[in-house]
UniProtKB/TrEMBL annotation:
Transport is among the record's keywords: yes
UniProt protein name: ABC transporter substrate-binding protein
Residues annotated as signal peptide: 1-24
Top-rank taxon: Bacteria
Pfam families referenced in this protein's UniProt entry, alphabetically: SBP_bac_1 (PF01547)
Keywords of this entry: Signal, Transport
Length: 447
């Protein structure tokens, strides 16, 4: 039954089943070696340093780290669960966690003593399954902000203070749409808010495209739907009814993708997840601004020839600004033959001893407050102001932070929402078509 269900998951994720030995898998590893997988190459050096610290505290125990690209990572991990070549410990994503827990491929971590108050708000609680068991130890967190090209902004007369005070609404787009329109320039030098602007021949878009956003819209539309007061499901975790049929959601999506119709946001055809993401458009000078996550801070500020700045997400109809606050965790494979040392490694990963080291690398924000402080200081040393990412976590009065939708059948939701959103964005399909998609999703969740 488990093999059949896992094979179904491979199909739902659109993966190719790979049998045989996956690189770095737990199969054949010795009892004194813990195998650990992660996908972010930028974080690899920091975790190699953590592995050295762990080895000093646990003489005779080593950690073998394997780094794989995002797509390969999930392909090999899922195949590894089937073939028995999975790692002992791996970096887990909240969007995958629900399905992995349901398939019983994760080891409960209740005995690690993870406490909510030891981490940034909400991070620890997100990794409790429907059965009440913990399946992940908090690792790091991220929020979303607006990156912008400071030279382009200066040329357009849009100041940093204006970026900080942007607001939007689904009727006329507010000051956010005005700013994006003014930052847009066609091939004749006309700005998006000037008479004679040619929306079909744009040289620089005010806003880069990050694609259709599938079912979560993390770096696309979620700052807007969140600040409009909308939620993915009827409750924060383990909801059973998605709400893509909501008028609030659909009016926001209609306005957001409408920016492309007006020529202010790059069209869907400009986006490619492999070769032309928002950062690529931004780096090429084809877009003046782009929404992206905290994990990309060093990349934007390290882009040659561009002086990047950041701004808070715009305030919405609720009066608040909003951002998804995603948190990764470390999980143990249930089929691991080395659970005792795997538990020691996960506990070390979740401790200040490791998270402070990771924070000092200035690549991500670790989950513990001490780790976050270390990261903030590291960015400051580099001359990078990360307030746009940290302020939403600290100021609950003016900001709304929310999680990825945590439900069962996440892969099925993505499989249905990705083409639906792409049809609306790229082919002009009406947003009301989401009513049917939402019904299909909720029918699956009702199984």
């Amino acid at each position: 039954m488990r093999l059949r269900t896992l094979t179904a998951l491979v199909g739902a994720l659109g993966l190719t089943l790979v049998t045989g030995c996956a690189q770095g898998g737990s199969a054949g590893s010795s009892a004194n070696t813990v195998t650990y997988w992660l996908w972010d190459a930028n974080q690899l050096p920091a975790y190699q340093a953590c592995a050295k610290g762990f080895a000093k505290e646990n003489p005779g125990v080593k950690v073998k780290i394997t780094q794989l690209g995002w797509s390969d990572y999930w392909t090999k991990l899922t195949a590894g669960f089937i073939a028995g070549t999975q790692p002992d410990v791996f970096t887990d994503h909240i969007q995958k966690f629900g399905q992995f827990a349901d398939l019983q491929v994760l080891e409960p971590l209740d005995d690690l003593g993870i406490k909510n108050d030891d981490y940034q708000p909400g991070l620890a609680a997100s990794w409790i399954g429907q059965d009440g068991h913990r399946y992940g130890a908090p690792k790091d967190w991220d929020t979303v902000a607006l990156f912008y090209n400071q030279k382009m902004a200066k040329d357009a007369g849009v100041t940093a203070e204006q970026f900080k005070s942007l607001s939007w609404n689904p009727k006329d787009g507010g000051t956010f749409e005005k700013a994006i329109a003014h930052l847009t320039v066609d091939k004749n030098g006309k700005r998006g808010d000037e008479p004679g602007f040619d929306k079909n021949n744009v040289k620089v878009y005010g806003l880069a495209t990050q694609g259709g956003g599938m079912g979560d819209g993390q770096t696309q539309w979620s700052p807007f739907t969140g600040s409009a007061g909308w939620s993915y499901t009827e409750k924060a975790r383990w909801g059973t009814e998605y709400q893509y049929d909501s008028k609030t959601f659909q009016s926001t999506i209609d306005w957001y993708f409408g920016l492309a119709k007006k020529g202010y946001m790059a069209p869907f055809s400009d986006y490619n997840i492999q070769s032309n993401q928002g950062i690529t458009q931004f780096a090429a000078g084809k877009a003046a601004a782009v929404f992206d996550g905290a994990w990309m801070i060093s990349t934007y500020y390290g882009t040659k020839g561009i002086d990047a700045g950041t701004a808070l997400t715009p305030a919405g109809p609720t009066g608040k600004r909003a951002t998804m606050m995603n948190g990764l965790a470390d999980s143990i494979s249930k089929a691991s033959d080395n659970k005792e040392n795997a538990r020691k490694w996960v506990a070390y990963l979740a401790s200040d001893a490791c998270q402070t080291v990771v924070g000092q690398a200035g690549v991500v924000f670790p989950a513990t407050p001490a780790g976050t402080e270390a990261a903030t200081a590291a960015y400051k040393k580099k001359g990078i102001d990360v307030t746009a990412f940290t302020e939403p976590v600290a100021d609950k009065k003016n900001f709304r932070t929310f999680s990825y939708p945590i439900t069962n059948y996440a892969a099925d939701v993505t499989a249905l929402m990705q083409p639906a959103m792409e049809d609306i964005y790229g082919n002009g399909k009406p947003v009301s078509s989401l009513d049917e998609t939402n019904d299909q999703i909720n029918l699956i969740l009702d199984q």
